[in-house]
Amino acid sequence: MASSREIGRLSAHFAESPEVFETSPLYRALCPVVAEEPEILDLLVHRRQGQQPSYLLFGAVHYLLLSGVPHPLRRFYPSLMGASAADPADAGPALLDFCRRYQDPVTEVIRTRLVQTNVVRRVVGLRYALWVVGQHCPGPVHLVEVGASAGIHLHVDRYRYAIGEHRFGPADAPLTVDSRWRGDSPPPDLDEVPRIASRTGVDLHPVDVTDVRDRRWLRALVWPEDRDAATLLEAALDSVAADPPTVIAGDAVDVCPRLGRSLPAGEPRVVFHAATRMHVPAVRRAAFDRAIDSIGDDGPLYHVWQEPPSAPHHGLVVAREELAFHGPELEVAVPLLRADGHLRWLAPPLPR
């Protein structure tokens, strides 16, 4: 049983979480229900250090439902029921009954899985960042993603992009990633990006895209209402499965210094991470930052990240809807783009 202090922290987390799930009416409705149930919160004591509680609990429940576990809770999931899903406002009692009835399998998923959400549209921010890097150096560049999971963002140059009315990337790409553009002038030419000389991911537990259970876990982390994102994810996973990039298993604190030394000296490298540092335990974040910076010891480092304000990096406290950028020509990190957390829209940064 968790301590009363830990239960209190978890309760506060769920009480404050509805705004995080702005596009999921189901999860917004369930957060305050979970916040009032110590018995359910106690299941999260088994999570690995640093894992975000609400993403993990809701992902575990969704995973079991996608696996075919029978329960009336299924009625509330658009991912299972489509447009006929029941009113999310009524889902609370069903969730509580599900977690009690399936306590052991829910706990097992919480204990063994990590929050490895693959938001395909975040690759739009990386594509934009590569254009910015191309304004500083002609390339080629070595691409590294920290917290790569299945490595779908490492195929950034192989996707087609629909940014508002504009199209970029190969016409025969396996999928098209779309996002709204909120700038007064057109977006830059995102075909003008440096060639990628190598692509490498780093992850505590790389996802095997040929394993049906691993793919189901990634699907479970997509919010139930977001069927469009789930379709994009399946297409991206198929692309990765056809030509898997290298994803090194291990803690970034240990892996990144070695990885940096393995890249050709003097050649530029681009490091990207999104919603990754937020899962690093607070006591290890300084070491995480140093490890990423070490990739630039032997060559110019361009660093791009999308993390919440609660996990600032390089001294830059970003707004909730910003991507950040730091390069060898910059003394401090700067906002690169404004965008929502799932890159459904993007816009130039506001002047500071």
From TrEMBL:
<dbReference type="InterPro" id="IPR011200">
    <property type="entry name" value="UCP012608"/>
</dbReference>
<dbReference type="Pfam" id="PF10094">
    <property type="entry name" value="DUF2332"/>
</dbReference>
<protein>
    <submittedName>
        <fullName>DUF2332 domain-containing protein</fullName>
    </submittedName>
</protein>
